[in-house]
Amino acid sequence: MYKVCKTEKSIERQKLFQTTLLSMMEKQKFSDITVTSLCKKMDAPRKAFYRYYDALEDVLTAVIDEAITEAFLYLEVKVDLEGFFAYWKSKKYLLDVLEINGLSPLMLNRLYGRLEAKPLKQGISGKELKYTGYISAIMTMLISWHHAGMQQSEKEMSLLVKEMFSLS
Question: Rounded CA gap, 88 and 147, in Å?
Fold first, then answer.
């Protein structure tokens, strides 16, 4: 778990852990990074790390959760598929680091956890299943687009999604 910080100083420190970890992941595998090496790189005590996170994985989870939350504003408030893909193009660095470390599926895992489907015994509505399907397909397209080098424009990706779901 990670702590959701409220003070500016805490938020700033937490962000520093996140950006430092991503920077380290460019040069070495996530599995080779330790809390100690992260803290040493930041010149921060280990107890500062544990003030915000329970484990190293939580730092990455916080980064992904924040990115997903920001990205889905484009889909939940007003459907803006072009804006959604533009947002992720601006986050190419995060997608690169996840891919380098073989962690792209972590984005989908975090997303599915956030969709908060009802337990099966309570049932799930057709609308919820449809929404989950849309989101899964769009995220899969995003990851494929990234793997292919993001050569199509955001507008082209938006049109592909609309065509796929017959939304145009």
Answer: 13
State the maximum Cα–Cα separation within the chain, in Å, rounded to a whole number.
54
Between the alpha carbon of residue 159 and those of residues 75, 133, 152, the distances in Å are 14, 18, 11
Task: Give the pTM.
Answer: 0.83
> Could you report the average pLDDT of every consecutive run of 10 residues in the chain (168 residues)?
88 95 95 97 95 95 92 83 95 94 88 61 67 84 94 95 78
pLDDT at 115: 62
Burial class of residue 76 (count of CB atoms within 10 Å of its CB; 0-12, 13-18, 19+): exposed
d(C-alpha 21, C-alpha 42), whole Å: 9
Contact indicator for 95, 104 with CB cutoff of 8 Å: yes
